[in-house]
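Title: Request for sanity check on Gfo/Idh/MocA-like oxidoreductase C-terminal domain-containing protein prediction

Description:
We are preparing a figure and want to confirm that the structure record we downloaded matches what your pipeline produces today. Could someone re-run it with the sequence below and paste the raw structure tokens into this thread? We only need the token string, no images.
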Amino acid sequence: MYKYIYIEKPLAQSMADCDKMANIIERNNVSVAVGFYNDFLILTKNLDEIAKEHGMGKLLKISSQGGALCLSTNGAHFIDLASVLFKSRPKEVLGKVNTTIKNPRGMDYLIYDGLGYVTYENDKELLLSFNNRSLNSPEMVLHFEYGYIEASHDSEYLRVMGFKSNSKDRPKYRCDRPVELARINNNNDFNKLFDRIFYNLLNGGVYCSIDRAMQDMQVLLSILISDKIGRRLELPIRSDNYYYHEKFPIT
């Protein structure tokens, strides 16, 4: 008998509870999909082709910064995007967090802004920086060796910035300002993205597994723990960490 479960993110409010959930899933041989849709975005499906076509080199860094977003509610999706695109494990986390706004999902929850900085294996980086006193939508940028892609979730198109491959002015040993090379449609139907998660769960396709979601939770909770201890935190968080059992009011 097959068992299928869909779990909305975040998995839980503490790393201890996340581990308990993962152990239950493993013992009962359950197929679990977690509510991250990054596998199906126009950006992720076409990124390798875009980078190759425009000679952008390796993806080095993902950054999202600006106004009103929550480091947990929204930031978790950027953390998962890094898991999808980097294909490497997080190593260290630094967090500086503010909790000045109540979350409309419940009086027991908070909305977090501030800073989350994560380093990954293979010299990759994720930077999240939000300020909820601003009403500006944050931007998202993917930084490559030779250029970047502006890929904000609410933009109608992806803006590819780089250097023309056959240009004598393409920098080799110095920095320079990229120029616009292309604009690509970015109209994702988010309702259909979630439909794809359910379809793939039942039919053996790609979706966010419990293992990937556990890595995402390590990063998200580490940002909050790092803020508590006032220093960077090495991953993974294990049971000997003082804050392993602490529940953070996240959604």
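Thanks, this matches our download. The mean pLDDT is 91.
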